[in-house]
């Protein structure tokens, strides 16, 4: 999990808009295994360890369904500590009739679900980093069928919710223009490209992780940004290391024409697809 520690820049919290807060709370607690950290009438903050916020769900006063293709969330990805934890959540899903997709990405083994508002979720476990294949600065990733029976052999059937060491592993975004997104996240925020998937997707990280952020235009090229009241991604937060890094990021963002606004504990910016990014210490 050292890829999700300073000095790396990594996702700490994802904030999504939902149409029915109570329905989503039930889903994220019973199906995914989160615990409630804080709750108000229109929002709830969810955690795995009882103290660290990983996911915030918000019900806007006026709710609109996402009726057309827009930019925003492709999925957020919950990183489990071990392969045994992945086996146990597979058993939990099976026992409770929870449908999921599955893929082997070589660097990781992943499950895919959608919440009641069709927000995309990945639940995954990394393979040991010494088993990843690097070609200079590019990491080898694939999308192949997952050998679920091999994973289940490591399970012990014990499932009591997300393990305390669970983190927000990465976020995958639907953007309107890949070149503009690349400039924002690399020149503006300092991420490095670690994998390109043809002309429509790229994966970026810090500290040679396989990816902290995925970007694609598979269903969103030239699409408008998500509406203020539409369900979907509201914001996501990235961890800042120190004041010097924050000052450099602000300077670089302003140089490429991105907005920068100070907020409590850091600053806020917006990518070219209208996705709000919170930079926090």
TrEMBL record:
Residues 10-126, 167-281 form the VOC domain. It comes from the Bacteria. PROSITE patterns: GLYOXALASE_I_1 (PS00934), VOC (PS51819). This is VOC family protein. InterPro entries: Glyas_Bleomycin-R_OHBP_Dase, Glyas_Fos-R_dOase_dom, Glyoxalase_1_CS, VOC_core. Keywords: Metal-binding.
């Amino acid at each position: 999990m050292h890829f999700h520690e300073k000095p790396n820049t990594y996702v700490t919290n994802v904030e999504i808009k939902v149409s029915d807060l109570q329905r989503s709370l039930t889903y994220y607690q019973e199906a995914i295994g989160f615990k409630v950290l804080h709750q108000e009438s229109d929002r709830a903050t969810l955690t795995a360890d009882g103290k660290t916020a990983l996911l915030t769900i918000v019900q806007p006063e006026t709710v609109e369904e996402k009726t057309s293709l827009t930019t925003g969330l492709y999925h957020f990805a919950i990183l489990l500590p071990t392969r045994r934890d992945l086996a146990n959540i597979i058993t939990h899903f099976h026992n409770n009739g929870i449908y999921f997709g599955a893929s082997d990405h070589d660097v990781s083994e992943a499950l895919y679900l959608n919440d009641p508002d069709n927000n995309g979720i990945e639940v995954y476990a990394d393979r040991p980093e010494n088993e990843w294949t690097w070609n200079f600065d590019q990491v080898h990733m694939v999308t192949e069928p997952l050998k679920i029976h091999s994973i289940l052999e490591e399970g012990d059937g014990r499932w009591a919710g997300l393990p305390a060491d669970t983190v927000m592993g990465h976020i995958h975004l639907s953007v309107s223009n890949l070149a503009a997104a690349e400039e924002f996240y690399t020149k503006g925020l300092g991420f490095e490209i670690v994998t390109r998937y043809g002309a429509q997707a790229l994966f970026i990280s810090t500290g040679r992780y396989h990816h902290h952020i995925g970007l694609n235009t598979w269903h969103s090229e030239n699409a408008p940004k998500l509406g203020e009241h539409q369900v979907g991604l509201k914001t996501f937060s990235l961890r800042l290391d120190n004041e010097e890094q924050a000052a450099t990021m602000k300077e670089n963002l302003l140089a490429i024409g991105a907005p920068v606004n100070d907020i409590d504990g850091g600053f806020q910016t917006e990518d070219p697809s209208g996705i709000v990014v919170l930079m926090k210490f």
